[in-house]
Amino acid sequence: MYEFNMAINVIISALIVIQSALSLPFTTLFFMIDSKASVFESGDDMYTVIWSTTLPGTGYVTYSYEGKEYTVKDEKNAALRTEDSVHSVRIPKKHLDNNTYTYHSQHIATKRAYVSVKGRTVSSDPVEFKGYSGQDEIHAMILSDIHENPVNAQKAVDCFDIPADLLIMNGDEVSMMTSERNFKQVLQYAYRFSGGKIPILYTRGNHENRGEYGSDAIDIFKTTTGGLYYTCSYGPLQFLCLDSGEDKSDDDWTYGGLVDYTSYIAEETEWMKSLTLDENAQYRICVSHIPHLKNRYGNDWSEILTELGIDLFVGGHKHRLHFEWNSKDETPFYQMLDGGKNGKDRYIATMMTIKGGQIDILAYDNNKELRGKHTYYFGQAADSSAA
Ligand SMILES: [Fe+2]
After folding, report:
1. pTM over cut 0.90
2. Distance 291 CA to ligand 1 centre (A)
3. Going from the N-terminus, what domains does the chain have, and what CATH number goes with each?
């Protein structure tokens, strides 16, 4: 019986390999990069470079650092990932900051136990990446709730004269995550607004939980925690990026009894409680899509953020620019919501400029209208100059 099963397996494998090899000269012509790479913070002084190709294949990033050549591969438990067209490679931040990287993928038509059929390799141009370089003034662009309208988001972004040093994508960039195609949209927005040249802090919005690919997408970021929550730093700023889960309880009809955010958020909450943020950080900023902090699946995040010494909370989700959001909670930290998709045909983009004890915030919409101007002074009362 064993010999019979082996013979069947060998015959099936041989047929698949022959079919792949015969069609390879044609199929590999369609192998190309369809979402250029962006660089995401993934916790613990690490970045994850993520891009995608039209067909499955390998992924690897090359660069040189301190005179040594590096090739870092997209692998899982020692095997190169080949069955996926989304590629992610985790690299130490100090290797990539103010350095140049190139990314590559090779088409893999099939991989069997003892033989594989490989197609052509595609490579990007070298990308110059800008990490923190000691500048006094830091510009952080916040884009949440794009909801598949990058054109309006682009018009709002174009209102700012100064380029961003880092990009915060605070969730709901797409309205569902049913397949890899939706995730590729997120990647395309990430590239559109970062050029792969500045770090991105990405958090998951409630809409990005909806669909079969929602949980798979988290694995692509390869964070240390395993969830889409992490800490990261940019010069004097320390960020706590959280996954706020869904906006309804697990038993809501929307989810058909097929989710368990209660356990996921409980695990995240325990991780938050175990954290000690950097005492030397000048500003501690929490980024999370849903702003309701008092009750995240029965957990009081407001209390934990207070204990962690958070200075500013940045939320999205409400589709309204809002300074001093939820100040009735009487948290000792400032809270703001950044706008995003605001009505049917309007989008609000927000830029934070951080310098010398204050954060200046400017917000424009796609009609080039100034939608908000505000300053947070740390260690003093807030100035509500405009909204
Ligand atoms: Fe949302």
Report:
1. yes
2. 10
3. 2-128 (2.60.40), 138-377 (3.60.21.10)
